[in-house]
Design brief:
Keywords: Metal-binding. Pfam families: DUF34_NIF3. GO terms for molecular function: metal ion binding. The protein is α/β, with parallel strands linked by helices and 252 residues long. The protein is built from ten helices and 13 strands. The protein has helices spanning 5-16, 48-56, 79-90, 100-104, 110-118, 146-157, 184-189, 202-210, 220-223, 226-239, and strands at 3-4, 28-31, 36-37, 39-45, 61-66, 94-97, 120-125, 136-144, 162-164, 170-175, 194-197, 214-217, 242-245. A six-stranded mixed sheet has the order 7-8-10-11-12-9, with helices on both faces. Strands 2-6-5-4-13 form a five-stranded mixed sheet, with helices on both faces. A two-stranded antiparallel sheet has the order 1-3. The longest helix is centred in the C-terminal third of the chain and has 14 residues, at 226-239.
Length: 252
């Protein structure tokens, strides 16, 4: 079966409430392709590797978390941007990208999906007074030593995280996928035992150590693989179209 591209976009925009979320890039349709959609290929980032794999898979739509046209980027269509856009336009493939709307969604969002993968119980937002809070706070059903939780992350995500070991077992935890190491201050204020994100910066290590907080950097790409898959599955079931997630490995 196939669905009109416009219908697919309208439903994705509605489901993610993307029009209400201020972001660093345009959410939704970024490159327009053919008018009918029978196959969606999803991935974390609209890299050349993903685009080539999507063309090989005969995709009508590429659905990603990290798309194009970020604020303050060079607007010229040259270099890798030219090659990526040429691939999409030559093969009449659409590009749909959802950044913050896919981070915060309560069902298919990156943070909720990572919690499901790691067995974290969601209790609420990391910033309770911020209606746009991206991160979450929750708990483990059974307290774990930092090394035990690190092993769980490695088993589930398929990569060893960087760990700064805190002063005790992990009961309550805060997390925010991607490049959210800057939220460690909010994690300290939330009085949790651990903070999990994708990336690490030099000051993050000192903040964790000096507050006795366990910190885990599990990879920007690795922590954000699951929201776009869940969104792709939602759209595939909603419109009876095919969906294929393609993971292009990224150690960062």
């Amino acid at each position: 079966m196939a669905v009109a591209l416009t219908t697919l976009i309208e439903e994705a925009d509605r489901y993610l409430n993307s029009a209400k979320i201020s972001d660093y890039c345009p959410n939704g349709l970024q490159v327009e392709g053919r008018s009918q959609v029978g196959r969606i290929v999803s991935g974390v980032t609209a890299s050349q590797a993903l685009l080539d794999a999507a063309v090989e898979a005969q995709a009508d739509v590429v659905l990603v978390h990290h798309g194009y046209f970020w604020k303050n980027e060079d607007p010229r269509v040259i270099g890798i941007k030219q090659r990526r856009l040429k691939t999409l336009l030559t093969h009449d493939v659409s590009l749909l990208a959802y950044h913050l709307p896919l981070d915060v969604h309560p069902e298919v969002g990156n943070n909720v999906q990572l919690a499901r993968m790691l067995g974290l119980i969601v209790e609420g937002p990391l910033e309770p007074d911020n209606p746009r809070s991206v991160g979450l706070v929750g708990s483990l059903d059974t307290p774990l030593a930092p090394a035990e939780f690190m092993q769980r992350i490695q088993t589930v995500l398929g990569r060893e995280p960087l760990m700064i070991e805190g002063s005790g077992p992990i009961r309550r935890i805060a997390w925010c996928t991607g490049g959210a190491q800057g939220y460690i201050d909010q994690a300290v204020a939330a009085d949790v035992d651990a903070y999990l994100t994708g990336e690490v910066s030099e000051p993050t290590v000192h903040i964790a150590r000096e507050n006795g907080l366990s910190f885990f950097a599990a990879g920007h790409h690795a922590t954000e693989r699951y929201g776009v898959q869940a969104l792709g599955e939602y759209l595939a079931k909603r419109f009876a179209v095919e969906h294929l997630f393609i993971d292009c490995p990224n150690p960062a």
